[in-house]
Amino acid sequence: MALTGIQIFKMLPGTNCKKCGVATCLAFAMNLASGKAELDSCPDVSAESREKLSAASAPPIRPLTIGSGATAVKIGGETVLFRHEKTFYNPTGLAALINDSESDADIAAKVKRYEKFQFSRVGLNLRPELVMVKGGARLAEAAKAVVSNSDMSVILYSEDAAALKKAAEALAGKNPLIGPATKANCDAVAEVALAAKVPVWLKAANMDEVAELTKKLTEKGLKDIVIDSGARTVKDAFTDSVAIRRAALGGNRDYGFPTIAFPVEITPNLALQTAVAANLIAKYAGVVVLGEFDGASIFPLLLERLNIFTDPQRPMTMVQDIYPINNPNENSPVLVTTNFSLTYFIVSSEVEGSRVPSWLLIKDSEGLSVLTAWAAGKFSGDDVGQFVKKIGIEGKIKHKNIIIPGYAASISGDMEEELSGWKVHIGPREAAHLPKFLKEFKTS
DSSP class of residue 319? Predict the structure, then answer.
């Protein structure tokens, strides 16, 4: 039976030493109870408590990291079946397949092209992170060509344990995911993964064999495991992905690991692979492997991933700050709005499109839009006025004019009382009308 955070807290040392990465033992206990932390993070827990807590506190789906640096991908760690129940934590990793039969020059050209697939969206940089290198004799050389010419993280694919060993050694410090560990080569691949201290992915023939292989790997001391159920049809891949998640959340430890799916081995058509990948990103795949990355396929998958793995209970926000647009100077107009990301990007894009140099002040409104923030008291006149005084905009301009959103017109009087000597101007209600407004606006 799962323990509550308070029950777990009573078995912790209570020193608040912060060695686990959070401020207090109570916070750590709550993370353990919700499956967002592991007991091993606490170095001071007693042997007796560790024994009692180990089973109860382990996340239902073990989290692990593939790769290193900017493209390291954390998968697993999920605690719910449906996003609206809580949230999904670790976005699906997107991988493209490269064969070791390709020349080093061709591999270098590919990964350099893949690195360029980076898209700015609501303040985030969206990009694919992974390359799967498949082969045997030239696996190590091909993998080195990837990391020598890009920052992409690597998954190794070979049923030859000797080839995996050589490639894992070539990528020392890069933390590649290696595999597949199958019924035939499980012992040899496990030995390679243990020696290199890297995660391993298994490939089973069916769901029963998944449980058999996870037991075998964990008994050998491997904890970081990724499951490939072996499904190579759309229906079976979808069914197995859902079944594995349900089993893990139901307490079956044999299935308590993230998964990897292979649209590339379901169909040779990239457009169809993209459709399959979209299906599996929505239904629990930890990693999906495509045959190629191109803009038409990767961009919609990145957007889908962003939408699915955004916390539905926590709006996306911008940092409270002064944002210069179009190289403003001391005579440029000043605008203020809330820190809801969508509000910022709509307003900033319209200001940028106007070509009028401007200062955009973003006030922390807990991620609420203008009208909602005003109604909730997060964008009131005196509050916004105090923000304007504290943010330091007066040191950048020679005038005292500020533009507020049209929907917040009612706060202008309170703002002028708070900002002595300032003139508050009411801007348009719709951001689309900002270019015309700014072109006609005078600060003097």
Answer: P
